[in-house]
Each structure stands twice: as structure tokens, then as C-alpha cells.
């Protein structure tokens, strides 16, 4: 299996632009998670889906952030408009089932820089 | 609120020596404690985990211990090697599928 796939790996954009990050979970996994990693705040869960349905989006920082999962093999995280403080590494992870004891597998991340 | 505290934030050990990283958690309902290793430019990768029904688990040079009463868990790496250099994160489950991560430990192995 190829593991969790994220694109792009690096994104540099200017403040005010729309940014879309993409994720393909491991085939057969039913849960998908979006995380943000910064030096100041560490790894933070933004939102997670179970069977393509958003379950908990309490970690989404503002209305500028939105996430979708139109099917079992694809998810997007969109920031519109982007701001310099959104600069971070964004990770997508997937797990087989949505349970408290199931392993989450992380993708390689997208490093976002907003100028 | 619920949190996971991790210590130390940086750790430097001589190659061949042991390294220990400690974490505490606040939610007594937590029942799953994974440890992740993150190398530069990569995503976190699971290296070992422990569930609340056991007190210790070992996988070759890596072991994890759990004390549910004290809400402590620790990662032990023996016979450290240069490839062990990375950032290590502990984590604990909250509810549903949510996991909260510690702040990370940057481990350096001195040759």
C-alpha cells in the first residue's frame, strides 16, 4: 500500500489567496483526520471524518478553514482567504475504524507558507 | 482541559546508552497510548502503542510502560543508534477517535 498521500508537498502563497490541500487515505480506511503542526502549538487536530461524514470540527480555527470528503478516497482542506499565521505543516492521517484504540497513519504533510 | 505533558523537550544520549521519555495525561478515561517518531521532513510514524489493559509492552529495543493509577506512561529505547535521532511524540486518546499529542522530545544520539 502506498500509505496516505498528500499534495502538494510544499505550497507558497500570498496572503488573501485561496489554498487547497489534498489527501488520499489508505485504501479501506474509514476515518480521516486533518492535523496542523507548528512550533508554538505542536500537533493539533483540526477535523476528522468517519465514513466521509465530518464528526468533529471543533479544532478548525476559523471560518476561513473548511474541509470536505466527497468520497472514501479523497479529502480537501481549504483556507480562504489565507493569512501568514496559517503557515504550518498540515498532516492528513487515516485509520481503519473510528475507535479510541485504532492506529492513525500519517501522510508526509504539506508545508504551507503564506507570505 | 485535557492535556498530555511530555518531558524532556530535548534529550541527548551517547550511542549505545538508553533513552527515556515520560508523559502524563489528565483524562482518566484514556485507554490508548501511541508513540510516534517524526524524522525531518516526514510525518509522524507509529513506533509502539499500549492499551490500558496492559502495563508494559516491548518491541526489540523499544518498550513502553503504563501506570494508569498515576496516569503516567514512558518510552524506553535501549542500545540507542544514530538512526534513533528524531522527534518523539506521546499521545493519549480522549473520546471517540480523538487523540491529543504531547509537545514532543527531540532525541539526539551522540556518536
Task: Describe what this molecule looks like in 3D.
The complex is a heterodimer of chains A (115) and B (111). In chain A, strands 2, 4, 5, 6, 9, 10 and 11 form a seven-stranded mixed sheet that branches. Chain A has a four-stranded antiparallel sheet with strand order 1-3-8-7, with no helix packed on it. Chain A has no helices and eleven strands. The mean pLDDT of chain A is 93. In chain A, 0% of the residues lie in helices and 54% in strands. Chain B is mostly beta strands. Chain B is 0% helix and 57% strand. Chain B contains no helices and eleven strands. In chain B, strands 2, 4, 5, 9, 10 and 11 form a six-stranded mixed sheet that branches. A five-stranded antiparallel sheet of chain B has the order 1-3-8-7-6, with no helix packed on it. The radius of gyration of chain B is 13 Å and the shape is globular. Classes of the chains: A mainly beta (115), B mainly beta (111). Chain A binds chain B through residues 4, 31, 33, 42-43, 45, 48, 50, 55-56, 91, 93, 95, 98-109, and chain B through 30-32, 34, 36, 41-46, 49, 51, 89, 93-104.
Summarize the structure.
The complex is a heterodimer of chains A (115) and B (111). Chain A is mainly β.
What is the count of β-strands of chain A? 11
The helicity of chain B comes to: under 10%
User: What's the alpha carbon Rg of chain B, rounded to whole Å?
Assistant: 13 Å
**Which parts of chain A are unreliable, with pLDDT below 50 for 5 consecutive residues or more?**
none
Termini separation of chain A: 36 Å
- Anisotropy-based shape of chain B: globular
Helix and strand pattern of chain A = EEEEEEEEEEE
What count of helical segments of chain B does DSSP give? 0
Given helix and strand content, the structural type of chain B is mainly beta
Mean pLDDT across every amino acid position of chain A: 93
Rg on CA atoms of chain A, Å: 13 Å
Strand residues, percent of chain B: over 45%
Order of helices and strands of chain B: EEEEEEEEEEE
The coarse overall form of chain A would be globular
